[in-house]
Design a protein that fits this description.
alpha+beta; outer membrane lipoprotein receptor (LolB), chain A
Length: 218
């Protein structure tokens, strides 16, 4: 059975929301000694994110049941991102810098959230979220940095763990390769990136969308 056919009859909207919008707390412990020893890595992760002016990449998204869907990601800082899902998946997720919008063209439905209420806020505004709320997670590889971002005073805003690997050709020398989000039942969803490219010209029109409820673009 094809990936697209499997998703057509699955609760895809819920899976997307869990992965990209509505993460929730989980219990993860880090010793103070480990955090102190790796304190410089948080600055490296922030520098890597701040160094991205624009990025395009292929992505795959896997939910807790192992279902995977892919597409193209386009990012333009500050605040703009677009997840263009593959052909046959009638969904689009786009941020114009202030709000994230999930469009379901199959049922002509549009849902919107403030960027700051999403785990993706850590990716789109690293100076605010990663530096203030980031917490290093232990890894067994010195070429990997793992940063969990979570505002403990607002658990409803979600939790995201950003994974970086050392790469001299990436901004700041560290490449964002994937992130992990948890839903309200601590079910894990992972987004993986590949074929990352940086610094290209990206028009603001990339972050508009066709509103299925009316003619024209938003």
């Amino acid at each position: 059975m094809s990936m697209i056919h499997r998703f057509r009859n699955a609760p895809l909207r819920s899976a997307l929301a869990a992965a990209l919008l509505l993460g929730a707390p989980a219990s993860v412990a880090t010793t103070s000694a480990t955090a102190t020893a790796q304190s410089g890595d948080l600055d490296k992760a922030v520098a890597a994110l701040r160094g991205i002016s624009t990025m395009k990449a292929d992505f795959t998204q896997t939910d807790r049941q192992g279902r995977t869907v892919g597409g193209k990601l386009t990012l333009k800082r500050p605040g703009k991102i677009r997840f263009q899902y593959e052909k046959g998946v009638p969904m689009l997720l786009v941020s114009n810098g202030s709000s994230l919008t999930l469009i379901d063209y199959e049922v002509n439905q549009v849902e919107r959230w403030p960027v700051k209420n999403s785990p993706l806020g850590a990716l789109l505004d690293p100076s605010r979220d990663v530096k203030r709320y980031g917490k290093l997670q232990p890894t067994s590889n010195s070429n990997v940095i793992s940063v969990e971002v979570h505002d403990p005073s607002k658990p409803e805003y979600g939790r995201i763990t950003l994974i970086f690997t050392k790469n001299a050709s990436a901004p700041g020398g560290w490449q964002l390769t994937n992130w992990v989000a948890l839903d309200s039942q601590n079910h894990r969803t992972t987004v993986r990136l590949r074929n990352q490219k940086y610094g290209m010209s990206v028009a603001d029109s990339e972050f508009t969308y066709r509103d299925p409820r009316r003619s024209g673009r938003r």
